[in-house]
Design brief:
Chain A: Residues 71-282 form the ABC transmembrane type-1 domain. The complex is a heterodimer of chains A (293) and B (274). Chain A is built from 12 helices and no strands. By secondary structure, chain A is an all-alpha fold. Chain A has a single domain (58-288), classed as MetI-like fold (Orthogonal Bundle). Chain A starts with a helix and ends with a helix. The chains are: A mainly alpha (293), B mainly alpha (274).
C-alpha cells in the first residue's frame, strides 16, 4: 500500500515538476556549481586538459590592475546611474499621480525606452552622440557637444550613465507609482487639511510610506546596471582605449577572447559577489527605515 | 479656483514638453530614416523633403529582416509557451504538496534569481560545447526555459497560494485526477498571472542579445538583435539604412505595447512588488 502511494507521489512529482526542474538543474544549478569548480583550475580550451590550482585564479584577479580599475569605473557608473534614474523616476511618478487628464498617456510614453533592448538602444544613442549632438555643437557653437562624447574618456562615462538612466527611468517610475498608490489617500487629504504643502507631503508622508518601493527600485537599478553589457557594446565598445569598459563587458571579452576560462570565471564570481553584497546591504539598511503604517 | 486650473494646465503642458524632450532621440532617428545618409550628415534636424522609404527597403533586404524576424518570433513564442506551461505546473506542485524536496527546490530557485548571467555563461559554453549542443535553436529554447523557470515558478507560487482549496477538493471527490483538476479548474483561474508572465518574458527574450550571440553562429539562425549587430558592423557609415533597420526591429514590440500596455504596466508592478 505504501509502495503504491510512493509510486503515485513520484508520478505526480515527475509530471508536474519534471521538465522544469530538469531544465533548472541543467541550465542554472549544475553550471553554477561547475563554474565554481572552474575557478579553481587552469581551464583553457586550447589545452583541453586542466589541473587543480586552488585559489590562485582569485589571487590573480585581485592583482590585476585592469580588472580593479574597471571595477572602480563600474562602481562609479552604477552609483551615478542609480541616483540619477531614481531621483528622476521618483519625481516623475509624483507628477504623474496627482490625477489629471492624460496622465495615463504620459506614463505610457515615458515607459517606451524599456521596450527596446540594450543593443538597439545603444545604437540609437550612438548615432545621437556621434552625429546629431556634434552637429548642434558646430551649428550653435556649443563647445560641450562639438566633439563626439564617445571618443572622449570622461564624456564617454557620462554618455553611458545618461543612456542607462534614460532607459531605467520609465521602469522605476511604474514601481514608484504603484508605491504611491498604496499611500492611503485619506492620509494625504488629512495632511492637506492640516496645511501641509507639496514638499512637506513628499518629505513627511510619501517618502517614508513608499520606502518599500524605494528599496525595490534601488535594488533593481543596482543589479541591472552592474550587468550592463549590450548597451556598453553598442554605445562605446569599451573605447576609446578600453576606458569605458564596464566589468560585465570586460568579463565577456576576457572569457571569449583570451580563452582563459578559469580567470574569466573567477572575475565573474567576484563581480557576482560584489553585486550581491552591495544590493543586499542597501536593502537591509533601507528596510530598517521603513515605518509601520 | 481659476488659479488652480491654470496651474494644472501649465503642469500638464510642461509634462508633455518633457515627454517630447525625453523621446527626442527616437523622433530624430525616425525622421532621418526618410532621408539619405548625406542629408542626415549635413543636417540631422532638418525635416525630410519627402517621405522616402528606400532606406527601409534596403535595410529589409540587406539585413535579411525576414529571417531575423521569423527566428526571433519563433524563439520568443515557443520559449514563452514552454516557460509558462511548465512553470505553472511546478508552481502548483510546490504549493499543494508540502514535501521536503519541494521546499528545498523552491528555495534554490528563489536564491538563483540573484545569479547574473555572466556567472553562468562560461560554464554553459564549456558544458554544452563539450556535448556538441552549441549552435542550435533547440538548445537556446531549452536555456530560456531553464533561465525563465525560477521567476515564473515564484510568480505562480505566490498566486496559487491565494486560490481556495475547496474547488479542487470537490473535484477530487467527484473522481477527477490531479492533472485533470489542475488543467480544468486551476489553469483558468491563472489567466491574469499568465498574461503578466507572457509579457515580461516576451520583452526579455525578444530583446536578448548575449545568449543568442553565444549560441547561434550560423546566419540562417540569426535573431533580430544579432542581425542588427551584423548590419551595424558592415554598414558602419551608411547611417540611413542603419536607422531604418533599428526602427524596423522596434516596430513589432511597439505594436505589442499598444495592445497590451495595461498588462505590461500591471505586470511590472506585480513582478516587482511581490
Amino acid at each position: 500500500m505504501t509502495n503504491k502511494k510512493f509510486l503515485q507521489n513520484t508520478g505526480t512529482f515527475l509530471l508536474f515538476g519534471g521538465p522544469s526542474i530538469f531544465a533548472f538543474f541543467a541550465v542554472v544549478l549544475i553550471p553554477f556549481l561547475f563554474g565554481l569548480y572552474l575557478t579553481l583550475t587552469n581551464w583553457d580550451v586550447r589545452i583541453g586538459d586542466h589541473t587543480f590550482l586552488g585559489f590562485a585564479n582569485y589571487a590573480e584577479v585581485f592583482r590585476d590592475k585592469v580588472f580593479l580599475t574597471q571595477l572602480w569605473f563600474t562602481l562609479k557608473y552604477v552609483f551615478f546611474t542609480v541616483v540619477l534614474a531614481n531621483v528622476a523616476a521618483f519625481f516623475l511618478a509624483f507628477a504623474l499621480t496627482s490625477g489629471f487628464k492624460g496622465q495615463q498617456f504620459l506614463r505610457t510614453g515615458f515607459f517606451t525606452p524599456n521596450l527596446i533592448g540594450g543593443l538597439v538602444l545603444g545604437y540609437l544613442w550612438q548615432l545621437l552622440f556621434s552625429q546629431v549632438l556634434p552637429y548642434l555643437g558646430k551649428e550653435y557653437g556649443w563647445t560641450l557637444f562639438e566633439t563626439s562624447w564617445l571618443t572622449d574618456t570622461d564624456k564617454g562615462f557620462w554618455a553611458l550613465v545618461i543612456v542607462s538612466a534614460w532607459q531605467f527611468i520609465g521602469y522605476l517610475m511604474i514601481i514608484y507609482i504603484a508605491g504611491f498608490m498604496s499611500v492611503r489617500v485619506d492620509v494625504l487629504e488629512a495632511a492637506s487639511i492640516d496645511g501641509a504643502n507639496g514638499l512637506t507631503k513628499i518629505l513627511k508622508i510619501i517618502l517614508p510610506l513608499s520606502a518599500p518601493a524605494i528599496v525595490i527600485c534601488i535594488f533593481i537599478s543596482i543589479s541591472r546596471s552592474f550587468l550592463t553589457y549590450d548597451l556598453n557594446l553598442a554605445l562605446t565598445k569599451g573605447g576609446p582605449f578600453n576606458s569605458t569598459e564596464l566589468s560585465s563587458y570586460h568579463v565577456v571579452q576576457k572569457a571569449f577572447l583570451s580563452n582563459e576560462y578559469g580567470v574569466g570565471q573567477s572575475e565573474a564570481v567576484v563581480l557576482f559577489a560584489v553585486v550581491a553584497i552591495i544590493a543586499l546591504t542597501q536593502a537591509y539598511f533601507l528596510k530598517k527605515l521603513e515605518v509601520e503604517e | 479656483m481659476r488659479g488652480f486650473k491654470t496651474s494644472i494646465f501649465l503642469k500638464t503642458i510642461s509634462l508633455y514638453i518633457l515627454l517630447l524632450a525625453f523621446l527626442f532621440p527616437f523622433l530624430v532617428v525616425i525622421l532621418n530614416t526618410f532621408k539619405s545618409t548625406q542629408q542626415f550628415v549635413e543636417n540631422p534636424l532638418s525635416w525630410p523633403t519627402r517621405f522616402n522609404f528606400s532606406n527601409y527597403a534596403k535595410a529589409f533586404k540587406d539585413m535579411d529582416f525576414i529571417t531575423g524576424f521569423l527566428n526571433s518570433s519563433m524563439i520568443t513564442v515557443i520559449s514563452v509557451i514552454i516557460i509558462v506551461f511548465f512553470s505553472s505546473m511546478t508552481g502548483y506542485l510546490f504549493v499543494r504538496f508540502k514535501w521536503k524536496a519541494n521546499s528545498i527546490l523552491f528555495f534554490s530557485m528563489l536564491a538563483s534569481m540573484t545569479l547574473p548571467f555572466q556567472a553562468l555563461m562560461i560554464p554553459l559554453v564549456v558544458i554544452y560545447g563539450n556535448l556538441g549542443l552549441l549552435n542550435s535553436i533547440a538548445t537556446l529554447l531549452f536555456m530560456y526555459l531553464g533561465f525563465g523557470i525560477p521567476f515564473a515558478v515564484f510568480t505562480f507560487h505566490g498566486f496559487i497560494k491565494g486560490v481556495p482549496l475547496e474547488l479542487e477538493e470537490s473535484a477530487s471527490i467527484d473522481g477527477s485526477s490531479r492533472a485533470r483538476t489542475f488543467f480544468q479548474i486551476v489553469v483558468p483561474l491563472l489567466k491574469p498571472v499568465m498574461v503578466t508572465l507572457i509579457v515580461l518574458d516576451t520583452l526579455w527574450i525578444w530583446n536578448d542579445y548575449l545568449l543568442p550571440s553565444l549560441l547561434l553562429q550560423s546566419p540562417s539562425m540569426r535573431t533580430l538583435p544579432l542581425s542588427n549587430y551584423g548590419f551595424f558592423s558592415t554598414y558602419s557609415v551608411d547611417y540611413s539604412p542603419l536607422m531604418a533597420g533599428l526602427i524596423m526591429t522596434i516596430i513589432p514590440v511597439l505594436i505589442l505595447y499598444l495592445f497590451l500596455q495595461k498588462h505590461i504596466i500591471k505586470g511590472i508592478t506585480e513582478g516587482a512588488l511581490k
